[in-house]
Amino acid sequence: MVLMTLASAAWPGSASAQPAPKEKIEVRSAFIEPADRVYQLSATIELELPEGARRAIRDGVVLTLDVDIVVHRTRRFWVDETVATLEQHYELAYHALSERYLVRNLNSDEQSSFSTLDAAIDSLRVLANIPILDKSLVLFDARHEVSLRATVDVRTMPDALRFVLFWADDWRQRSEWYTWSPRL
Fold first, then answer.
1. How far is Cα of residue 7 from the mean position of the Cα atoms in its chain?
2. Which of 4, 53, 76, 107 holds its CA 20 to 30 A away from the CA of 181?
3. Minimal CA–CA distance to 183: which of 19, 37, 51, 31?
4. pTM: predicted TM-score of the whole model, two decimal places
5. Where are the chain's structural domains?
6. DSSP helix/strand/coil, 173
7. What is the Cα–Cα distance from 70 to 146, expressed in whole angstroms?
8. Are 38 and 99 in contact (CB under 8 A)?
9. 37 φ, ψ to 5°?
């Protein structure tokens, strides 16, 4: 009887064990297009939060999304030249009084309100029309590369306390660089 109980138990790594939760961030697609005197970036980010991070947000902890953007001019016989760098910062917070999730672009201070956490997270997954590069910086006979990566961070305690308690239960993920060569 004991052997039967042990044999039927789900051991880690066995076929009947529960799959690991999805916890990742990845830039799935991105492109730039001209608009007036600038080039604008649009991107899609795959963002999956573990239940602990979702619970922390519902309890009032702030989620931040940082997007790093770098534009290089590639050169054959010399080191690539950095043409522009930009950081976009977003914040998702739960407002208990209104029972709404607020997403704020920290660069422009634009804010949107959502009734559910999933709707708020979905708004962070699609970035649209972010001005990243002045057209005057582009050499039309040169090859350029655009790279971006995203970092999501759920901090469950203040920085001062986190320094003392380095094992804090924070959650942070950073995507790989997503790089492509657009025609400018």
1. 42
2. 107
3. 31
4. 0.78
5. 21-179
6. strand
7. 6
8. no
9. -105, 15
